[in-house]
Amino acid sequence: MMTVPMELERLQERIEDAVRLGKLRADAATNIRRLLSGERTDFYGCVVEELADAGEWSELNDRFYKTLAFGTGGLRGRTMGKIVTATERGTPTVMGRPQFPCVGTNAMNFFNISRATRGLISYLKKWRAGKAGSSNPKIVIVHDTRHFSEEFADLTSKIASDCGCEAVVFSGPRSTPELSFAVRDLNADAGIVITASHNPPHDNGYKVYFDDGAQVIEPHASGIIAEVNAITSEDYVAEKRSGHVVTVGDEIDRAYMDRLETLILDRELITNARQLKIVYTPLHGTGGVIIKPMLKRLGLNFSVVPEQDKFDGRFPTVKSPNPENAEALKYGISLAGRDGADLVIATDPDCDRMGVAARTRDGKFKLLSGNQTGSLLAYYRVKTLFDRGVLNKENAAHAVIIKTFVTSDLQKAIAEKFGVRCVETLTGFKYIGAKLGKYEAAVSAKNYRKLSEDETRRLRLTKSAFYIFGGEESYGYSGADFVRDKDGNGAAIMFCEVAAYAKANGQTLDELLDSIYAKFGYFEEKNASLVFEGADGAEKIRRLLVSYDENPPREILGGAVASTKNFERETIRDVEGDEIPKEKLMIFELADKTRIAVRGSGTEPKIKYYLFAQRRPSKEKLSREELANAKTEAGKRLEGIWRWLEADANRRLGK
User: Could you say which DSSP state residue 230 is in?
Assistant: First the structure.
């Protein structure tokens, strides 16, 4: 039960004393005072008082040193503090979740949900003012299975309705890619997903999509951010003429699944794939809502990990619900071993990412990296489209594969070999979505979203660009433009077809991958990161990024840096002539084509490093011995470079 805090004036004095003694940051104190000036002073004051009584000034600094920034993608942060106060714990739910989310300006809670929603609506109304018809926006809202996701979605829809909007909500948890589809299918003005993707259980987030179904980019991003930042309180007054809330469910699911089915390129191959055995796990998230009925609709032989086939924001069977991590696939691999399955597929809580493990010739399971999975998908899809006559020499110039700068160059080599264009973007599927928006605009067709996939493909191959495949190394993939974000549902369907292709040809998936390496060259990647949490950590990340900008390395592991690309300072254009937006990203290339990319994470307290090595065939293809040697050499090379980079980062931080 909540206790009444000490007199507000005395609490304010205590905060000032803590600042003078160096226990509390001045910026944290400013934000605490601001939060205590609203309508929920008693509740917030109790939490601050509890932490102060316990001497947890570091926790207060982390919660209040800034206001959770609304970035170009939205919000993401802790919804449960490192320390949960008794006031926040309240009456825990049956799953042990605190009754109330983390109090703080730098946390995912009702305070920041309110600011974000009202800021977005303000921008949308101004944007719609110049258009014909009503100025009241339609917003689709989806939530995943995380702690407080449903409550945050309910608050979002209430605020939207109070502010005169039509809020379209789903009857239960749904995936991020289905939100993207629904925005387009319902001709909505925007979409909101309450999710923190694959982050730990204590996090949650708020992602914003615009009317094209893609995450917001400029100029909308800056406009929305300005409106959100202008709001300093969660308090608001409902409009006299409020909007309304509409609930949807199965009808959108069916429309989405109809489009997903068109991702299959060789239906006969799938029909004859009964010998292919698949294990799927949604990792306690939303993936099972669509993937299970889709696999059943396609007639595939699959089973689901029972322990992980239930919505649970604790994600109790994994350390982290991230399909990039081997540990997250442990249950799936165990079930596959018992069932004699060929393939394990896992999706993260909001089902925009997919990870896989495949049985090798010796019966063991091998995890594929995001780069390897994406390259298998890119190769199979472009090859099959040529084999089936959809693509040919005459129209290949109108076909495109899209990847990020930090994704394997094997996909670029595949595109070049088949004579299709490979476009590179910054990290984030919003940039791939922007490209798809450009291609759609070039078609200039009425009711484009309602046309069949065959019809839009014909138009794109004659008037614009036909999107074969897009992906990023962080386990995100897409094979069509009816979704404008990475799509774990679609990726699962597409990868089952790749597995069926390998099975039909008597290959394991790693053998198929080796045959691709032999033909196009061996490409190996290593992703690593340094984690710095809290206020002090954010400052270390900033210092490191500034250091690389002002003093880039001239040599790495004894080898000279042949070229440096600074995406924040230079004007860089892609192969279509479009200027790449400015971002704190640097890429260093050595004489042997080894590349190193460095950037700060947009969603986690990390600085990320991407390492790339390649060994191209000197003749028509690499022999088995040459491929084995290339794997050994590249692996040692990247491991050595990472050790050098880690030590260099410590030097830059003065350790």
Answer: T
